[in-house]
Design a protein that fits this description.
Elements (H helix, E strand, L loop, with lengths): L3 H30 L18 E10 L4 E10 L4 H17 L13 E7 L3 E6 L1 H5 L5 H18 L5 E6 L17 E2 H13 L2
Parallel strand pairs: 4-5
Antiparallel strand pairs: 1-2, 3-4, 5-6
Length: 199
């Protein structure tokens, strides 16, 4: 004959297994119902060392379709190429903020900026920036004009620029603005002046 305490122990263990199964099933349902948070896939960059300087960022405002000059204080290194990269990263950080007037995709980043004499800047953006950018003539023009005007306003001597994606040429940013050629900064200055004055 099986002792009574064995039946009691087996019943308690069965109840515990059943309770844990129900708990695990409910937790799985909660996890499935919770929206996945988008993670920031940008590479971690070393902190910038250098004195904090006042710079001018040309910020796009989608609702008005304009660019506005905005003063900012950011740490800038002494090397010209690194200064260019930090300027554009400061602009990107502003656009990645929740209250941005010109939102861009999460994970967008500047991979590098190459300053090639005489007067050529090559901006290499990451795939997240280009692949997730909103399609539309005005949105794309504002992004490109914002990047180029910010760069040329703070780094003297840039006459033309090229934008690459992951180090490779690309036809368009998101279907409209042509990235296959070089941007003449004189034309960008004129476009910026028009975009600044539109209300």
């Amino acid at each position: 004959m099986i002792p009574r305490h064995f039946y009691i122990a087996a019943s308690v263990m069965l109840a515990a297994v059943l309770g844990m199964s129900i708990y695990a099933w409910r937790m799985r349902g909660r996890v499935a119902a919770t929206p996945a948070s988008s993670s920031d896939s940008r590479p971690v960059v070393a902190p910038v060392s250098g004195p904090t300087e006042e710079v001018t960022l040309f910020v796009a405002y989608d609702d008005l379709g304009i660019l506005r000059a905005q003063a900012a204080r950011i740490p800038l290194p002494s090397v010209r190429q690194q200064r260019a990269e930090e300027l554009l990263r400061a602009l990107i950080a502003l656009y990645l903020d929740k209250t941005s007037p010109h939102p861009i995709p999460v994970g967008s980043d500047i991979r590098s900026v190459y300053l090639i004499d005489p007067g050529l800047a090559v901006i290499d953006i990451n795939a997240a920036f280009a692949d997730g950018h909103r399609s539309g003539v005005l949105s794309e023009e504002l992004t490109v004009a914002s990047l180029l005007q910010t760069l040329s306003a703070n780094i003297p001597g840039i006459l033309k620029a090229k934008i690459l994606v992951e180090g490779q040429p690309r036809e368009t940013l998101a279907g409209h603005v042509d990235l296959s050629g070089f941007f003449d900064l004189t034309a960008v200055h004129q476009l910026t002046a028009e975009l600044e004055t539109q209300q």
